[in-house]
Amino acid sequence: MIINSILSFEFPPINELLRWKDVVPGLNKVGLIAIAAALIGTLLFLSAARKDPKVAPKGTRNLAEVSVEFIENNIIMQTMGRDGLGWTPFLLTLFLFVYLCNMPGIIPFIQMPATARMAIPMFLAVLVWVVFNVQGIKHQGFFGYFKSVLFPPGVPKALYILVTPIEFISTLIVRPFSLAVRLFANMLAGHLLLVIFALLSEAMFQARDKILIPIGVLPFFMLVFLTGFEVLVAFLQAYIFTILAAVILPARYIQNTKNK
Amino acid sequence: MLTAFVNINSSAQVRVTFDVVSAETGSEEGAPVSAGPNPIAPEIKELAWGAGSFIVFLFFMRLFLVPKVRKGMASRYESIQADHEYASATRDGAKQDVARYESAVAEIRSEASRRLEAARQTLDKERQEKVAQVNAQIAQRRAAAEAEVAAARAAAQSQIVTAVGAVTTRATQIAVGVSPDAAIVSRSVQQAMEGNRS
After folding, report:
1. Dihedral angle at the C-alpha atoms of B34, B35, B38, B43, nearest 10 degrees?
2. Distance of alpha carbon A105 from alpha carbon A234, whole angstroms
3. Would A61 disulfide with which of A57, B44, B81, B143, CB 3.0-4.6 Å?
């Protein structure tokens, strides 16, 4: 009977969970989260920038400096080296924006990561893709850049028949796609897991069959655990997205230096 | 707020139902919508708001906020570095002062030791001189005392000789009726006293 009860649980259609009605025309919850993320990040750094830098940092100033040092020490220095420190504002903005879009997934009454929709990961991935291609073309010239991408040096010419299509697909098509899908799919999966266990807990706690009520503790514990896990995932996905962007960006410089 | 609404319809069955609303007909503000295109496909309005928000955020971060925070960090690091160097220089100076102080203390100790030794030698010399002087005075006084004793003894001896001579002369005169020569008596008494003494 219990199994039948559980099996009769109907999960809502995916659109019910992901597509949100407009709060005002043309602006839904995801858009609001994106605006809030940009606003929170800007206000954080605005508040930090207005504080006296000579004294020991605390509060927003400390948070801002820790985030700057985190990006510089744990992402840029690990991937690009000192030459990449000029990318700090871009990568820091990328990290903060992704993180602040991820976090609402576990904030009560919001509970929707903006990155669980494809629009923002896709835009950010395309932006990174455009930036690294523009940097490549800027440093190597249009033909030089595409030559270095499609015809990697040191490969026997006969292998270009295989290597060139692979490089074309991996560098120019799959790279932004994988960057976007990795973030989107992880956040969507986390969001769906939370929804599943929340619905299951609620359904069991409200069941008329009293035997289901104590069993409802199990999905509730799982919900609590996954909520904690999503805190980690939100940070981890922002870090992964940013570090992969940082790995992609200097590739053009390195090739450029090697060619010279 | 959960992203779905749940109702329990019967005792044995858990049913989840939703108010079906669409973006086009939307009946509840803020509620999820069920109808629409592929849920994985990006929505234009989300893309526009996401891109716009990020670009504005990036604009402020790139041009104003990060450079200002970074500049503040750099100035504080430089200040800390300068303070550190100043502290290091002060510490080195203090170490040199300590070394100079220890050197001066060693020098003063050496000088004090040298002066103490000189004073000790001077004192010893003066002591020896004083002792010698006192010893000389003692010897002088002893000699004088011995001379006085000898003189007193000689005087006493002369008186004794005279007295014994007179007694002897008188005793002889009484016994024999003849007064002996005073010089012979005196010489005999003297010889007798010297013989007793030896």
Report:
1. -90
2. 8
3. A57
**Domain residue spans of chain B:** 1-35, 54-124
How high is the ipTM of this complex? Answer: 0.89
Length of chain B: 198
- Please give the model's pTM, rounded to 2 decimal places: 0.70
Inter-residue contact A67 to B66 (CB < 8 Å): no
Contact B66 A17 (CB under 8 A): no
Helix B66-176 to helix A29-50 angle (10° resolution) is: 40
Q: Which of B3, B12, B49 lies at the smallest CB-CB distance from A111?
A: B3
Interatomic CA distance for residues B121 and B123, integer angstroms: 5
Evaluate whether A34 touches A98 at the Cβ level (below 8 Å): no
- Chains A–B, number of C-beta pairs less than 8 Å apart: 223
CB-based contacts of B31: which residues, under 8 Å, 6+ apart? Answer: A20, A21, B19, B21
Residues 11-70 of chain B with CB under 8 A from chain A are 11-18, 21, 23, 26, 28-36, 39-43, 45-51, 53-54, 56-58, 60-62, 64-70
Contact B21 A119 (CB under 8 A): no
